[in-house]
Amino acid sequence: MAAKIKSGDTVVVITGKDKGKSGQVLQVIPTENRAVVRGVNLVKRHQKQNAQAQGGIVSKEASIHLSNLAIADPKDNKPTRVGFSVLKDGTKVRVAKRSGETVTA
């Protein structure tokens, strides 16, 4: 099945502790049905000092399940479902169900 959420997409969190937040997808992990989104699901990690990085408590994004994410509609940035459409030249594109506009990554 084609991917409904790809890296580079703008998504909205629809449930969980970060409900309502939006961000850009940095990485998609299709084998685990998870994605890493900028500014969402932040966790604290204790990092040991090394030659390249300072030690201390670092905040970073953890992955979030794809079922908790929805694509932001290109028209009004509200969450929408994604469908697929085939253009006249034969290319398959993702379409926002809410407005009918094509979703670009």
Q: Order of helices and strands, N to C?
A: EEEEEEEEEE
| Number of beta strands | 10
Give the helix level as a range of percent.
Answer: under 10%
Q: What is the distance, rounded to the nearest whole angstrom, between the alpha carbons of the first and last residues?
A: 18 Å
Count of individual domains: 1
Structural class category = mainly beta
| Named CATH topology | SH3 type barrels
Beta percentage is 35-45%
Poorly predicted runs of 5 or more residues: none
- List the total number of helices: 0
General shape: elongated
Description:
The protein has a single domain (10-96), classed as SH3 type barrels (Roll). The two termini are 18 Å apart. The protein is built from no helices and 10 strands. It is an all-beta fold. Strand 9 (82-86) and strand 10 (92-96) form a beta hairpin. The mean pLDDT is 93. The protein has a 6-stranded antiparallel beta sheet with strand order 6-3-2-1-7-8, with no helix packed on it. Strands 4-5 form a two-stranded antiparallel sheet. The protein has a two-stranded antiparallel sheet with strand order 9-10. It has strands at 10-13, 22-29, 34-37, 42-47, 56-61, 63-65, 69-72, 79-80, 82-86, 92-96.
